[in-house]
Amino acid sequence: MNDASPSPALAVRLADFLVSTPTSAFPPEATAMARNLVLDVTGLCVAARGQDYVMATRSALDPGGACTAFGHPGGWSGFDAALLNGTAAHGEDYDDTFEGGPVHSGAVLVPALIAACERENLGGQALLRGLVLGAEILCRLSLVTPKAIHKAGFHPTAVIGAIAAAGAVATALGLPRDQVANAIGIAGSMASGIIEYLADGSWTKRMHAGWAAQSGLRAALMARGGFIGPRTVLEGTHGFFKSFAPSATPDYSHLFKGLGQTWVMSTIAFKPYACGTMTQPFIDCAIALRARGIQTTDIADIVCDVGEGTVHRLWEPLSLKHAPPTPYAAKFSTPFCAAVGFLDGRAGFGQFTEARIHDPEALALCGKVRYRINPDDEYPRNFTGHIRATLEDGTVIELRQRHMRGGHSDPLPQAELDQKFRENCAFGGWPATRAEALAQTIAGLFDQPSLKALSEYRV
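Above: the chain's sequence. Below: its structure in token form.
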């Protein structure tokens, strides 16, 4: 199905799905995924609550309102809470991802929907409904033009996220089909987010999820008020995919094949490491190399086989990736991520600091890591890693990670997700008892008549 002008319009067809699908149609794995998305996102919000980029974002907001920003005192408007929570959740690049996109669903949809539900005094079923259905369309939209949005210089989570958040919030609000379609149409003019942060390691990607969250909320509320958006916002001559993915021919079949029967959102991946998605398999390879008793001084050279679509974000310019100018830039340098993975056996908050990006041992190893493009790499359908390490004595060691750890082929155990949440809350300064209380609240949240219990976690 590659027709550029399907009838009825795509936004209307998506609205039909959003309006007509009951929560009773959700398989258990979709509901479980939604609950884990809330758990992961709230833990990340707490972890980042005192970080400089979060405080800078908060300084631009006006306190006062009915909505919760996790770890921040007082209430906030729905728009401000969505922006602040979304920025915090995505700020360390430790949030969920989707193999095939890649896009980050939780950091956009959870903040948007919690803000909407608190603002409108909606309960857990509205949150569940918006989250499952919104994540489904967000993931499916990312499959329509794989790699092309990044190629055009835009961040898929930012631009697709605004569309999906609008549909998700409109669904949670119980809007009729025409208003849901309008919300999607309005969000097309709110979608934004360029990837020029890659040039200098600046912060703008961190705000993209929050911006998409507040845009989706605003679009849905405007639609409820009667504002009209273009029905052909996605496929039109001047529409979303023409604007944000001009190099590709959209394949809209990904939007509707098995829709309502096959739940792709249930395959969302949770990251084990606090850095860019496609660095993760290479970190696992580096950790496996370390486990063989190899020392940094033993290594002469490391060559990574990579997908062409990852090069412009994670490998080039190679001189910049070998000497990341900021801790944030280091998260999108596969050489640096592999180096700290080898040295420390992990890549969490402590591996991306000002001190670490100047550490001589980390930089020395980072400088030995280079890449070659593998034309048969499965990116973005599958996230793999492959390194070929040549030692000083001439020994060659090859290691492969055939699937992303945390992805649908190798999901993280629930115990590891729970531990990640606890560690994130601890990093944010919360005692274990407070983290456990929030986890228990989230466990029963979808059954609650309101989300008022979340207001207990504002400090």
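The longest helix spans residues 204-224.
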